[in-house]
């Protein structure tokens, strides 16, 4: 938690206008009624706008998205029982992108008002993960190779559909918005956008932690989990919904950001073992810190231009994925080849 606190603090201070760390938290505390009278205002109005209205919500959004991607990575790896699984790699994010793109460009799901984007992304991710999982199990097999092939195939189809939607866009503004959003960005971070993602990530984390015994049992295989009292059919459906919900909400607010859910859970398992009681919270913490600093690099590397954050996570995650794939064993509970 100290690392997260320090990451948030210094990420907010970094930018074209440098600000002292103490000023960051003075401004933050001044927004809390019980502390207002104790805080001496020694900052300018411009500094307050930069910190409170621009940088603070963006950094917090980065922490929420990073934590959420890591949690969904843990869930989907338990669902398919191998460490190569990730919403981006398996094509779940592509499904969410189709749903969200249809909302941005054509106004689909408009009956849900301000929640249309989240609902569209959730629907797309749920459909894609069901398709991938069903396709991988045709013939009674469920190997890692079949799962990855199914994910690649569905992802390619969904990416093509997204491109077709963009090509059919009635205006150029919508095209530009979607193309930048598809590469992932936290530039739209505002206070009013933080509530729903925060609640969903926290609730899903708590719910999954309450089911840590079932998650641990699933690592040993469906038969072993069944003998331990886990209703594997119902639990898989539960994990499908959790995975789709988290992926949909994250994609709707930050776009398609890959490989965070692949890297963080694997790194954490090396450090703390495979017990989900520890893996889930530590993965969320590491994911939050990681994405905060990736976003700092995205903001500053080519300033004043901003680099889409998905490019940087892919540069980190691609080599990590290759290294993981080339290891002698990359599945849980036995060989997945």
TrEMBL record:
Main location group: membrane
Domain of life, per lineage: Bacteria
Cellular component per GO, a single term: plasma membrane
Transmembrane segments: 59-76, 88-109, 115-135, 147-171, 191-210, 238-262, 282-302, 309-326
A Gene Ontology BP annotation from the UniProt entry: siderophore-iron import into cell
The entry's keywords: Cell membrane, Membrane, Transmembrane, Transmembrane helix, Transport
Annotated protein name in UniProt: ABC transporter permease
Organism expressing this protein natively: Brevibacillus fortis
